[in-house]
Amino acid sequence: MTIQWFPGHMAKARREVTEKLKLVDIIFELVDARIPHSSRNPMIDEIIQHKPRVVLLNKADMADKEITAEWIRYFKERDITALAINSQAGTGLKQIVTEAKKLLNEKFERLKAKGVKPRAIRAMIVGIPNAGKSTLINRLHGKNIAKTGNMPGVTKSQQWIKVGNELELLDTPGILWPKFEDQEVGYKLAVTGAIKDAILNMDDIAVYALRYLGTRYPSRVKERFHLDEVPEDIVEMFDKIGLSRGFKQGNEIDYDKVAETVIREIRGEKLGPLSFERPSDLEKLEIELNN
Ligand SMILES: Nc1nc2c(ncn2[C@@H]2O[C@H](COP(=O)(O)OP(=O)(O)OP(=O)(O)O)[C@@H](O)[C@H]2O)c(=O)[nH]1
Ligand SMILES: [Mg+2]
Which of 37, 85, 181, 273 is the most exposed place for a label (fewest CB within 10 A)? Predict the structure, then answer.
């Protein structure tokens, strides 16, 4: 299955982000802490070029803490300011303004020297659908002012929101990109909920997720789905999960129901906090590419 989702409103959102770029001092690039690489939109680099940015690993509560710490180190080594945050609970948010101020210090000092009156930092929040951009804005603002929802594509247009006297934020619709070079990226985005479910084949997504988790988190998979061992064969795994949950249609296992349940439970944190990629996976790839 080839996954692709780039509806018209995203193409429009991309144009609007480009247009508004000159109005902002800094970009807050919101990524999903469970997939900090695959949830970075490669178009963002082209669009924002050298604008200062802070990468925010949101939904850190849903990701594997140790792996998130590895990711923060990974970004730091590449001179990118990155913070792990939980926008729903509001943890880690204070650091955002602190880091933004640090990155903009020189610019604001320059303006001050020219006699420009101090003003709020203007920031634009960009990121893939469902990453939590509007939730973060609401948290920072202190009131629910931007619409949120646990499905991709909730925000359809841009909106400026004031946060105290220090920050003005522009909320933007989530943007994906026209083609995933690596289909694995598509699968990871699908598992974590960045792609509209209606266009997905859930069986494929569940196969991908169970294979990954069976390797990286075997004990959690075994425990959740009552397995003695993680079967090598994926059909056997579906059969066993289906049997233990009683998902049968006549004598047949209802694979669709198994798939839908597996995905729902992963997203619903029934297997605990999970990371779907690690910096070491990428570093291996970088070494291979360079040789
Ligand atoms: N567990 C957890 N859930 C979060 C966090 N941030 C946001 N969410 C949830 O993620 C879902 C999506 O949040 P939104 O703020 O609507 O996401 P968005 O990036 O604005 O999405 P679009 O407007 O569709 O691009 C909602 O159900 C939020 O409650 C977080 O840090 N942790
Ligand atoms: Mg939104």
Answer: 181
Q: Tokens in use for 221?
A: 């998979």
Summarize the confidence of residues 51-77 as an average pLDDT: 97
- The answer to whether 41 and 133 have CB atoms below 8 angstroms apart is no
129 with 245, same domain: the answer is no
User: Is pLDDT above 90 for 51?
Assistant: yes
Q: Is the dihedral of CA 193, 198, 203, 204 positive or negative?
A: negative
pLDDT in tens, 254-285: 999 999 999 999 999 999 999 999 999 887 76
pLDDT of residue 290: 66
Q: Is residue 2 very low, low, confident or very high in pLDDT (cuts 50, 70, 90)?
A: confident
Ligand 1 binding pocket mutation candidate from 28, 44, 93, 135 (most atoms within 8 A of CB): 135
The Cα 130–Cα 239 span in angstroms is 32
Residue 70 falls within a domain, yes or no? yes
The model's pTM is 0.94
Return the amino acid letter for 25.
D
Among 149, 170, 191, where does a domain finish?
170
Burial code of 250-287, b = ≥16 C-beta within 10 A, e = fewer?
Answer: eeebbbebbbbbbbeebbeeebebbbbbbbeeeeeeee
pLDDT of amino acid 287: 66
Structure-derived torsion over alpha carbons of residues 208, 209, 213, 215, reported in degrees to the nearest 10: 0
Residue closest via CA to ligand 1's atom 7 equals 132
Residues with CB under 5 A from ligand 2 (ion): 133-134, 154-155
